[in-house]
Design a protein that fits this description.
310 residues, alpha/beta, eight-stranded mixed β-sheet, seven-stranded mixed β-sheet, 8 helices, 17 strands
Length: 310
């Protein structure tokens, strides 16, 4: 029986757990969090969907996990993530690892994490999940990237600092590119409070451009009630995606665009890893480069001001 662990029993961790309850293989599930309250919430959410009768073991410490783990999800906040990773890799042999974004708050932690993952030969991925959605996979198949494409995201208070990695990753995935230059000149200078203490948020507009001149424009406004809209435009195509409504307009024609919640994704990620030894998510190595593009741009924007991204 293979051992599966989820470290971090918060909102997202409990959704990963719900997804893993759907895995038909025989697995032993562990969830780790120092908070008994968080563990209790996860346990209740697990019971809601545990139709296969899987066992769940709740732990407060990584040190109590088995020494061999087939698949681990680290869904803590970014400030905790490196210490959790280090403790986990010191304690157990992990075959497949899934990390939540924003990976780490410092450049040094990226370097150290990369060394640890390489030394332990762990196959690590980062949960920029849109590339797992069949709707985006289909979009990629018919998207015309022979001319310059602009991907624009607009909305109100959608946590640009925290979520920009999702859309930078999406742009690079759709355009088959690896690099981009970031422009923070249009970000609002005033920092916003994050719902998590010790973290910051940012409003305004962040821009990026790839070597092939494809563009990303991310705008988060401070006030209003506009839904998040994703537009992808070129001289040959005009697409508008409204994920919350699960629709896409292709040159004005309305079609279904199904979104996938985490509670219906992690089991599929695990299934791919078991079947072929890899999954559709971005690898840690590739995602670390994308994260560092953003982190260095945000650090330059912040200057002497303190603040971490979660």
């Amino acid at each position: 029986m293979k051992n599966i662990a989820i470290i971090g029993a918060g909102q997202l961790g409990s959704r990963h757990l719900q997804a893993m309850a759907k895995v038909e293989d025989e697995i032993m599930l562990y969830i780790v969090d120092p908070s008994e309250k968080a563990l209790q919430i996860s346990k209740e959410r697990f019971k809601e969907v545990n139709t296969l009768g899987k066992d769940l073991i709740c732990l407060n410490r990584i040190a109590d996990l088995p020494k061999e783990l087939e698949f681990v999800v680290i869904s803590t906040n970014s400030k905790q993530r490196f210490d959790v990773l280090k403790d986990l890799m010191f304690h157990a042999k992990v075959k497949f690892l899934l990390l939540e974004k924003f990976l780490f708050p410092t450049v040094q932690e990226f370097k150290q994490a990369t060394q640890i993952l390489e030394a332990t030969n762990t196959h690590a991925y980062v949960n920029c999940a849109r590339r797992m959605w069949p709707a985006y996979q289909k979009l990629k198949s018919f998207l015309d990237t022979s001319t310059k494409v602009t991907l624009e995201v607009t909305g109100v208070n959608w946590n640009l600092a925290s979520n920009s990695i999702h859309f930078l990753n999406l742009l690079l995935y759709l355009m088959n590119e690896k690099n981009a230059i970031l422009d923070t000149a249009m970000l609002d200078n005033e920092l916003l409070e994050n719902k998590r203490p010790g973290y910051i948020e940012i409003s305004g507009t962040l821009k990026a451009i790839t070597p092939k001149q494809h563009k990303l424009i991310l705008t988060s406004k401070k006030v209003g009630n506009e839904p998040i809209v994703i537009s992808i435009k070129s001289v040959t195509q005009n697409l508008e995606i409204r994920e919350a409504e699960q629709v896409i307009f292709i040159n004005g024609e309305k079609q279904e665009f199904k979104m996938h919640y985490q509670s219906n994704l992690t089991d599929k990620i695990y299934g791919q890893l078991q079947e072929v030894g890899e999954c559709s998510l971005v690898s840690y190595k590739e995602s670390a480069k994308e994260h560092l593009m953003l982190l260095e741009a945000f650090n330059e924007f912040l200057g002497d001001r303190e603040g971490a991204i979660t």
